[in-house]
Specification:
Blueprint lengths: L2 H8 L11 E5 L2 E4 L4 E4 L2 H4 L8 H11 L12 H14 L3 E5 L2 H19 L6 E5 L8 H6 L3 H4 L9 E4 L4 H10 L2 E6 L2 E2 L5 E2 L2 H14 L2 E5 L23 E4 L10 E5 L20 H11 L4 H18 L5 E7 L2 E6 L3 H10 L2 E2 L1 E3 L2 E4 L7 H15 L2
Helix pairs in contact: 3-10, 4-10, 8-9, 11-13, 12-13
This protein binds pyridoxal-5'-phosphate.
The site of pyridoxal-5'-phosphate has 15 residues, from helix 5.
Length: about 375
């Protein structure tokens, strides 16, 4: 059997994979099993932040891998402690809990919010407000947090205690806070899986104000928007708010599994020994790689991300077949006149690999993609959109 047949036979049938078997890559280039070259405009869903085989990242990971690959959290290790310090210094967070994925980073955020409210306001203050069209993960609790019924179907009953409001609907959020026993509000600054939809500044400031006034925690899910993706270190920084908890994953590890939940002033002492944990969380190899990623996301680098974003928006706006462009930084969604699957398949045939978000083409290129590769990819995407 070839690889595609093997996969179809033996791997759980949860993915509608594209008909491409990827075997290698370098920087912004990927190669399939026929040796065909592609420009990577998806980075494995915003994960390989510096592309494939980035030299600094490979060096950091390899050095740690050949020194000590795992310890469990029964012991101290330098990469875990150093990464936590780096994240706290760059964000103002006070403590970081490490896990291995976005769903786990959100589980930790939800548990922290519940524990904070239980201790401060009482055990019945466990409700969490999330937004319709959000995506927070695939565990039973993060599915409950996800405000899209299509994901819930067939998995009921989910964890109880989630209340949903539409993005932009501050009145409903306020009503929930007044009438229910609410621990936290949780949202993505740009709804990624929901179709690359940024929240408005007014709405986010409104949420922050309501949270502050009512001692409700502000939890920002930066799993996709984090780590330079939006042109800011974390998406919330573009909104000028001060969250109480920030979860992240995807790009932070540069390609290795890593989740992080940052706890700010109000929540820094919520967790105590034994109240939460993870066997793999804070793995030294993943953390060593993450340090090499986060260290490089300085102002100069992020302003390059913004320039690339502007280039894409300016080049594609008003083009034939392009209805609208949404998103921030290098997390962009293109609404096309043609069916998105048709656009995507043209791109794939012509050596460019974007992904989808709902009915939009989603672009998540390496943050350090060269202008040359970006230009090539955008030209092909432009042609793909033409009707
Ligand atoms: C991808 C994603 C998750 C889930 O992350 P996993 O690593 O797949 O568990 C959660 N929240 C957001 C906003 C995401 O984009």
């Amino acid at each position: 059997m070839n690889i595609k047949e093997l996969d179809k036979n033996y791997v759980a049938n949860t993915y509608a994979r594209f008909p491409i078997e990827l075997v290698s890559g370098k920087g912004s280039k990927l190669y399939d099993s026929d040796g065909k070259e592609y420009i990577d405009m998806g980075t494995g869903i915003g994960v390989s932040a510096f592309g494939v085989g980035d030299e600094e990242w490979v060096k950091a990971v390899t050095e740690q891998l050949t020194t000590l690959q795992h310890t469990s959290n029964l012991y101290y290790t330098a990469p875990c402690a150093r990464l936590a310090e780096l994240l706290c210094t760059k964000t103002g967070a006070k403590k970081v809990f490490f896990s291995n994925s976005g769903a786990e980073a959100n589980e930790c955020a939800i548990k922290a919010a519940r524990k904070y409210a239980a201790e401060k306001k009482g055990a019945d203050f466990y409700k969490i407000i999330t937004l319709n069209n959000s995506f927070h993960g695939r565990t039973i609790t993060t599915l409950a947090a996800t405000g899209q019924e299509s994901f819930h179907k067939d998995f009921l009953p989910l964890t109880e205690g989630f209340l949903y409001a539409d993005a932009g609907d501050l009145e409903t959020v306020e009503k929930y806070i007044k009438e229910e026993k609410v621990a936290a509000i949780m949202f993505e600054t740009v709804q990624g899986e929901g179709g690359v939809v940024p929240l408005s500044k007014d709405f986010v400031s409104g949420l922050a104000k309501l949270a502050e006034e009512n001692d409700v925690l502000l939890v920002v899910d930066e799993v996709q928007t984090g780590n330079g993706r939006t042109g800011a270190l974390y998406g919330y920084m573009k909104y000028g708010i001060n969250p109480d908890i920030v979860s992240t994953a995807k790009g932070i590890g540069g390609g290795l599994p890593l989740g992080a939940t940052m706890l700010f002033e109000k929540t820094e002492n919520v967790y105590t020994p034994g109240s939460h944990g993870s066997t793999f969380g804070g793995n030294p190899v993943s953390c060593a790689g993450a340090i090499s990623i986060i260290e490089r996301l300085d102002e100069a680098f992020l302003s390059e991300v913004e320039k690339k974003s502007q280039y894409i928006i300016e080049t594609l706006s008003g083009c034939e077949g392009v209805k609208s462009i949404s998103g921030l930084g290098l997390m962009l969604g293109i609404e096309t006149e043609k069916d998105v699957n048709e656009v995507l398949s043209y791109c794939q045939q012509n050596g460019v690999l974007p992904i989808k978000a709902k009915n939009k083409l989603r672009l998540l290129p390496p943050l350090n993609i060269s202008f040359e590769d970006l230009e090539k990819a955008i030209n092909i995407i432009k042609k793909a959109c033409e009707v």
